[in-house]
Amino acid sequence: MTSTTTPVVRTLTTPDELGQATTLYRDVFGYTDLRQGASPRLLTALRDNGGSVVGARDGDRVIAFAFGFQATDGTSSYHYSQAAVVHPSHQGCGLGRALKSAQREVALGWGATRMRWTYDPVIARNAHFNLDVLGAVARWFHGGFYDDSSDRLLVDWDLSSAPGPRTPAQDPPADLVDWARPISDGDRIWLPIPSDFTALAKRDPLHAERVRTDLAAVLGPLMDDGWAAVSCSPYTSQTALYRLERAL
Questions:
Q1: What is the value of pTM for the model shown?
Q2: Which residues belong to CATH 3.40.630.30 in the chain?
Q3: Domain N-acetyltransferase: where (predicted)?
């Protein structure tokens, strides 16, 4: 039975917690290849050497987990969040935000002032959480980040500011046409995507693949030209709407 007490996210310390965390990570993402997992030894090394290894328990069971490490792009340093997962029975309860908040505190404690991570740009709920709930900015597009089918947006989160949503922009233009077809009003670019890409992929996989391909073809050049995604909000029952602005 799931506890009614709100789980506390904290640094994971015991071998049992770390073992459960690696199992949760594989199970939630559906990884069957051992090369895609993490090990308790790796997490111990990260935790004690500039990384973050945080999670929450419900009773004696780890039900949320996130980890990251200190990183650099050769110019600036930041904390890189590799993954954050929540057991399906506890999703939608605020644990995702709690994980990121705990990672933020750990990263600040190690001296980092920014955090980065990636997400799939076609998944609207993740985009909304990263951009609108946390206030991160998606600044870079990487096609085939892990393999040929894994396009990713790389987000940048300023840890010196309290997490929170951005000030809403004015209403989008009324002439939005189709998914992955951008419309500009001068200072902003609006980019529609499916509100539930997973459902679309199950219903019409060919259409879903076209949307993914078209979105990649749009996002890459826009971000190379200095545009950044700052919001992805629900627009209609079928559509969510990215808002891009010139990178600050």
A1: 0.91
A2: 1-112
A3: 7-158
